[in-house]
């Protein structure tokens, strides 16, 4: 009998079948992690996100080695802003809003240098990159179809920011029936207290909308052959 391998997590371990799991890296873009992008334009210290880069590199390498599906997302808008709600466009200081010119091109606009994923986590051939206009990766994208077409049941989620796009995506995924696991050290926030509380909310109440694990547990679980 083949027993599934277990991923250590809170509030409890969960079965991990690499063929039915996907690593989802949310918005690890220059616009959020580098100076002069959208994150900084909103008044944030972008260096607070850098701790997640190394752990994301580790899980990316482990997922690739284990044949786990890898999907990257990018938040951004069409150059004509036709997919950007007016309420979103009005956020931030005038002159530093979505679509305004900055040192990495127009802020949060598809095709601009700032919209790219950081070089340390660059996608490779065969890894879908999902462009999304909202905070959640399921909203107005083809992500759900991609996952269903591959029989994916478990989402292993890292990226930025914990309480905004990671949280929204995990909430969306949970409501669609996916087991969603936040990889704590692969996520980061401009607000350390929001990061901690965001993770706590996911795993509270017996795992009310997901699990919390980390890069060390995941890389070890993927390196361990399934128990026979
Ligand atoms: N500002 C902030 O914390 N996040 C975002 O605007 N988008 C994402 O989280 N990707």
Shape: globular
Q: What share of the residues does DSSP label as strand, in percent?
A: 15-25%
First-residue to last-residue Cα separation: 6 Å
Note the total helix count: 8
CATH topology: Rossmann fold
CATH class: Alpha Beta
Name the helicity range: 25-40%
C-alpha Rg, in Å? 17 Å
Structure characterization notes:
The protein is of the alpha/beta class and 228 residues long. It has a single domain, classed as Rossmann fold, CATH 3.40.50.850. 32% of the residues lie in helices and 21% in strands. The protein contains eight helices and ten strands. A six-stranded parallel β-sheet has the order 7-4-3-8-9-10, sandwiched between helices. It starts with a strand and ends in a 5-residue tail after the last helix. The model has no long low-confidence stretch (mean pLDDT 96).
Give the structure's gist in a few sentences.
This protein is an alpha/beta fold and 228 residues long. The chain has one domain: 3-Layer(aba) Sandwich (Rossmann fold), CATH 3.40.50.850.
Features:
two-stranded antiparallel ribbon; binds tricarbonodiimidic diamide; Rossmann fold; 8 helices; alpha/beta; globular; 6-stranded parallel sheet; 228 residues
Layout of helices and strands, plus pairs?
Elements (H helix, E strand, L loop, with lengths): L4 E3 L6 E3 L4 E6 L3 H4 L4 H4 L11 H14 L2 E7 L10 H4 L11 E2 L2 E2 L22 E4 L10 H7 L4 E7 L1 H14 L3 E10 L3 H16 L3 E3 L1 H9 L5
Parallel strand pairs: 3-4, 3-8, 4-7, 8-9, 9-10
Antiparallel strand pairs: 1-2, 5-6
Bound molecules: tricarbonodiimidic diamide (TIU).
